[in-house]
Amino acid sequence: QVCPGLRTPQVPIWLCSLCSRHGVLFSTNSLLLSCWRAERLFHLHFYSGQQEQTKPTHLTIDTHSHHWEEEQSEDPSSPGKRRPPVEMAIRTKWAGATVRWNGTDPFF
Prior knowledge:
The protein is an alpha+beta fold. The protein has two helices and five strands. The protein has helices at residues 4-7, 85-93; strands spanning 13-18, 21-26, 41-47, 57-62, 98-100. The protein has a five-stranded antiparallel beta sheet, with helices on one face.
């Protein structure tokens, strides 16, 4: 028997399979489950268990950012325009969101 807490989590959590690796995205803000206003600017934690992750990863998600606020690059295929798979996974839920890694180098 699965306890109700596992069937209905108290905080948002997503299991991710990215590039044949697994990770967990989660937030400690339970309002993300019930209040759309909480989705304006919020924080997610990412844990992959990979050797590349040397410290906790704390991401800031801004769903109301504008494309001109991002760094501009002349060529869309240049490395500056490529996004880590974690960011692309986040954008499947929040299209166009800006993801800040807060001092952590994107490792995934």
